[in-house]
């Protein structure tokens, strides 16, 4: 039953389960998840209900005739699966959704959905959908954190309506098969700063390492300056900035004695027999 999370039997089961107010969320570990036997996990507040109470309630709902209490509508698993293949449904009010409410206050709601992980295309699809919604003031999505933060006018929209809009955007979007490449630019730039400081003032032997790393972090800026100058044929602020960056790289002291004097700021004898202080 749980091998196909979009199958009619599985969705009917989940819809009946969510009729129990004790159930807060459901996790379906389908056969897509590597090394996991197809199964379903029902999550509830253990401080208020016991496992026996929950199981008895769920069993009663499953045995009841569908006409007496129709099941809750369950969205497609495309809107609720993570990168491992597990499908996660959450309850919000009377709505079953793949979005988990992280924080909420009047006019602002932040939701999380693992389906966004490293899939910028889905974030763009959500933003395009929100762009045309009357009552949405500001929005922000992140494929790294799998979150969407939305500021809205509560007089025009409710949180349930926003969740329905997000579910619709994901259901109609084209889901890529592969994850986006990792963006390590921020991590590399962050590491290059302390490395350059250590090489400059504490360990001059690290200068041959810090200089190429500094040059690598400047590649996107150099690329942008090239496009501005040769493709757009105009002068921008990128050119002087990249010129200064290139000068810093090329004028780094390469001689070990020079690096030693630079770090210790020892005076050296200049032209004409006068003494001058070496330094940056």
Description:
- With 280 residues, this protein is α+β, with helices and mostly antiparallel strands.
- The chain has three domains: 1-98, no CATH class; 100-181, 2-Layer Sandwich (Gyrase A, domain 2); 185-277.
- The chain contains nine helices and ten strands.
- The chain has helices at 8-17, 51-63, 120-131, 159-172, 185-201, 207-217, 219-231, 238-250, 256-264; strands spanning 23-29, 39-44, 87-92, 95-97, 100-105, 108-112, 136-142, 147-152, 267-269, 275-277.
- The strands form three sheets. It has a four-stranded antiparallel β-sheet with strand order 2-1-3-4. Strands 5-6-8-7 form a four-stranded antiparallel β-sheet, with helices on one face.
- β3 and β4 form a beta hairpin.
- The protein is elongated.
- The protein starts with 7 loop residues before the first helix and ends with a strand.
- The relative contact order is 0.08.
- Residues 253-280 have low confidence and may be disordered.
Spatial order of the strands in the main sheet?
2-1-3-4
Largest sheet composition: 4 strands, antiparallel
Unreliable stretches covering 5 or more consecutive residues: 253-280
| Percent helix range | 40-55%
Number of helices: 9
Listing every helix as H and every strand as E from the N terminus to the C terminus, the arrangement reads HEEHEEEEHEEHHHHHHEE
Give the radius of gyration: 29 Å
Mean of all residue-level pLDDT scores? 80
Number of strands: 10
């Amino acid at each position: 039953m749980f091998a196909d999370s979009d199958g009619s039997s599985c969705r009917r089961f989940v819809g009946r389960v969510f009729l129990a107010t004790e159930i807060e969320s459901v996790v379906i570990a389908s056969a897509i998840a590597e090394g996991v036997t197809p199964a379903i996990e029902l999550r509830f507040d253990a401080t208020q209900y016991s496992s026996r109470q929950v199981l008895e309630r769920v069993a009663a709902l499953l045995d009841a005739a569908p006409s007496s209490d129709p099941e809750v509508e369950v969205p497609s698993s495309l809107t609720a699966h993570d990168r491992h293949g597990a499908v996660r449904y959450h309850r919000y009010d009377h709505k079953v959704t793949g979005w988990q409410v992280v924080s909420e206050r009047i006019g602002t709601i932040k939701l999380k959905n693992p389906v966004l992980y490293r899939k910028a295309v889905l974030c763009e699809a959500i933003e395009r959908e929100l762009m045309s919604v009357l009552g949405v003031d500001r929005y922000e999505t992140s494929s790294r954190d799998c979150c969407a933060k939305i500021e809205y006018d509560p007089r025009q929209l409710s949180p349930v309506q926003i969740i329905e809009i997000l579910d619709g955007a994901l259901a109609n979007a084209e889901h890529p098969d592969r994850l986006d490449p990792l963006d390590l630019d921020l991590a590399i730039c962050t590491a290059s700063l302390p490395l350059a400081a250590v090489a400059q003032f504490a360990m001059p032997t690290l200068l041959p390492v810090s200089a190429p790393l500094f040059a690598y972090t400047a590649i996107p800026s150099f690329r942008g300056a090239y496009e501005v100058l040769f493709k757009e044929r105009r002068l921008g602020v990128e050119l002087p900035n990249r010129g200064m960056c290139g000068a810093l790289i090329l004028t780094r002291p390469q001689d070990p004695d020079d690096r030693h004097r630079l770090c210790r700021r020892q005076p050296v004898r200049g032209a004409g027999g006068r003494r001058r202080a070496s330094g940056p």
